[in-house]
Write a structure and sequence with these properties.
Length: 439
Amino acid sequence: MKVLIIGSGGREHALAWKCAQENRVTHVYVAPGNAGTALEPKVSNVGISADDIDGLIAFAQRERIDLSIVGPEGPLVAGIVDRFEATNLRCFGPSKLAARLEGSKAYTKEFLRRYAIPTAGYATFTSANFDPGYIRLQRLPLVVKADGLAAGKGVIICETHAAAITSAQEMLAGSFGAAGKTIVVEEFLQGEEVSFIVIASNQQVLTLATSQDHKRRDDGDQGPNTGGMGAYSPAPLVTPALNLRIMREVIEPTLRGLRDDGNPYVGFLYAGLMIAADGTPNVLEYNCRFGDPETQPILMRLQSHLTVLCDAALDGHLASVEARWDPRAALGVVMAAGGYPLEFHRGDIIQGLEVAAGLPGKVFHAGTSLSEGQVVTAGGRVLCAVGLGATISSAQRQAYALVNAIHWNLVQYRRDIGARAIGRERAGESRGERGNAER
Ligand code: AMP
Ligand code: GLY
């Protein structure tokens, strides 16, 4: 079987690496891929952009690709799955209408309200009906969001009413392009964030291993928001009881609502949740794809064949398959270019990858490319070094041993990935507990 992975980040390297391990998979193509996928056995890159749907369809037809898996949200929201299906190509991901769950925050808030799924209170505005008076009546802080896709940058947390009004006006005036023509102003939620990722096939659900991401750039959850600076799996916060609540209060009503609206969901579904002190799982956002960097530690732990799970979802018998997980914890540290998430430099030679390749764990590439035989930086998030261990703290040690072997000019990374989970792990050990939701 031939597999095509669409995208070029760390998530796509992990997807390609995982699929290439299956005996029944003869070859994995990645469009356009990165230096990591170029160097992976049984994997090759194809020079077609993830947004070039016509080019991807032509390639998949010519190479007789059996299964395509879409990594990023852009092509999903643009309707790549509908287009592939119209040409009888198997493509794993939600349809254009189902992908609106990520493509439009205003649509999603209205959907969540209509189906009574827990989420922050909100109002939606366009420049035609914007009302600063509404903002002045709200409690602070307030969150102002661009409706459309903004590469993780369209969310501004405002500490004053004046700042919220200015942010709203700037977005409506075009600071985020078309994505900000409609805005959502919402209540700021307290709590702890978790990433809850499932494979969905209409009403059938396979929950993936739990995970948590670190959104802020700097240690101690300081600095600007990023796409994610590191992640680990499992997330000790997500106990079996919380898992059940999330399924009952969020995932199941979401999939039912989508079906009732005529947009059944097939694909990875990622709920970004803020868990309140009383355990309420509030939806912050939906992503219509796998998380990045959550994919890297989650797939390090997946022992089942990923293409078998995708096939089962596409064929409507997801309920008949199970996923087996490595009981060990996995933890990934993102190594980013200096300056990320703002301006950053590209083209720096990455040193130490050969040394890291001899160490336990796995270095997934994200923003890298090959230049005259050397691996160079080519994006903000450059690598994700993933360690495995009996505990999160031993997985963390393995991951940082990889990080310490690698260097380039102005590399930056957090030194505290997993800290909160390790605190929980230690508190649990001192109470004599063992294990988590999956063990
Ligand atoms: P989003 O793209 O909507 O997930 O927002 C990006 C990040 O902003 C989230 O991962 C949270 O860390 C933060 N955030 C978004 N909405 C809220 C909210 N209502 N309350 C608190 N933090 C939020
Ligand atoms: N790690 C956050 C995301 O994938 O959006």
